[in-house]
Specification:
Keywords: ATP-binding, Nucleotide-binding, Transport
Protein name: Lactose/L-arabinose transport system ATP-binding protein
Radius of gyration: 24 Å
Order of helices and strands: EEEHEEEHHHEHEHEEHHEEEEEEEEE
GO molecular function: ATP binding; ATP hydrolysis activity; transmembrane transporter activity
CATH architecture of the largest domain: 3-Layer(aba) Sandwich
Number of domains: 2
Distance between the termini: 38 Å
CATH topology of the largest domain: Rossmann fold
CATH superfamily of the largest domain: P-loop containing nucleotide triphosphate hydrolases
Domain ABC transporter: 4-234
Strand order of the largest sheet: 6-7-8-3-9-10
Bound molecules: adenosine-5'-triphosphate
Strand content: 25-35%
Organism: Roseicitreum antarcticum
Structural class: alpha+beta
Length: 353
């Protein structure tokens, strides 16, 4: 089993530097998800690990071996990505079998591996069709099949199910990750979707503009974000963010009254602080400080939108039955626990601890 490590990895296109001194460690057999908004550089980084893109600086190791200068074929790593080039005049089975070209598999075994992979990816019905005749979702699953059939020790999948319909995508991604876990594969999975990252990962690497914003276990990132960016990016439903004034050891939160500034943050007296409050951490209490302007029943409870005092509307999520909750237009009060506030420097976005 091989892990992957990156040390001070840099990528430049001419004078433009897009990746800045990235350090990442992916343990052997781990499911590591690279996630970030568009342009965060996850694809470029994954292509560099696979050897499909040259590095401009730094070191990439697969297992104990420095592979920075090696070609893709010498790295023992397989990557599938959305634009993977299938051979249009070959069938699904023949395209999947191309994934076995680089390894020594007997013909009989190869046919079995291809059939098993196709069955797993729900491609049995079109196994002998030429891929040029297939719709995009089947072509994407064929490309994925070509990547997973070989059972490489390190696999890189960049949005491997992006064009699948929602139901199949959800079912297949769980099954896919479980299958790869069972075989001890080290998996690096790229996505723009934080919910997908939270579901699949042993470890998440949040990327932003070519830098690692934070890396860690999903629950750690969610409960203990280092930056406002990570807190907002991973929050579902969206984090409530307020700009609070800190004075004389107290925070004034627009529309929510005052809260004590922790003693070790007294240096911030006289400044403003960004305060994050999760919708799950706000509770309704009798009162009239806020007006209900929206009510949505979602899977995990009811989401209420409340306006009052502050410059932005607040979201409250409650598991209370919808019938017990105020109607749109009604007034209510809000309560929160001081220890649930996440405090950030509004300029650097760093967490104030
Ligand atoms: N060949 C290139 N020349 C110049 N800039 C490039 C090149 N390839 C990528 N970039 C830039 O590098 C940055 C990262 O691109 P990349 O494709 O890795 O982003 P991404 O986070 O994977 O997003 P997406 O998945 O949406 O493409 C972007 O700002 C992009 O414009």
């Amino acid at each position: 089993m091989s892990g992957v490590s990156l040390r001070k990895v840099v990528k430049r296109y001419g004078a433009l530097q897009v990746i800045h001194d990235i350090d990442i460690d992916v343990a052997a057999g781990e499911v590591c998800v690279f996630v970030g908004p568009q342009g965060c550089c996850k694809s470029t980084l994954m292509r560099m690990i696979a050897g499909l893109e040259k590095t401009s600086g730094g070191v990439i190791c697969i297992g104990a071996q420095d592979v920075t200068a090696l070609d893709a074929a010498q790295r023992g790593v397989v990557m599938a990505y959305p634009t993977d080039e299938l051979v249009p005049h070959l069938t699904v089975a023949e395209n999947i079998a191309l994934g076995l070209k680089a390894v020594d598999v007997r013909a009989g075994d190869a046919a079995g591996c291809v059939a098993d992979t196709a069955r797993f990816l729900k491609l049995d019905d079109c196994l002998h069709m030429k891929v040029r005749k297939l719709p995009e979702d089947q072509r994407q699953r064929t490309a994925l099949g070509r990547a997973i059939v070989r059972r490489a020790p390190v696999l890189l999948l960049d949005e491997p199910l992006s064009v699948q319909d929602a139901r199949l995508r959800a079912a297949l991604r769980e099954a896919l990750v479980q299958r790869l876990r069972d075989t001890g594969t080290t998996l690096i999975y790229g996505t723009h979707d934080p919910a997908e990252a939270m579901r699949l990962a042993d470890r998440i690497v949040v990327l932003r503009a070519g830098r690692v914003e934070q890396a860690g276990a999903p629950q750690d990132l969610c409960h203990d974000p280092d930056t406002l960016f990570v807190a907002e990016f991973l929050a579902s439903p969206a984090l409530n963010v307020l700009t609070a004034r800190a004075d004389d050891g107290m925070l004034t939160l627009p529309g929510l009254g005052t809260a004590p500034l922790p003693r070790h943050l007294f240096a911030h007296n006289g400044t403003t602080v960004a305060v994050g409050l999760r919708p799950q951490h706000l509770a309704l209490v009798p009162g009239d400080s806020h007006r209900v302007t929206g009510r949505d029943v979602v899977g995990d409870g009811t989401h209420l939108t409340l306006t009052g005092g502050g410059e932005r509307a607040l979201t409250v999520v409650t598991a209370q039955s919808a019938t017990a909750l105020p109607q749109v237009g009604a007034r209510t009060g809000i309560r929160f626990r001081y220890q649930d506030m996440l405090l950030f420097d509004p300029v650097s976005s760093r967490r104030l601890r």
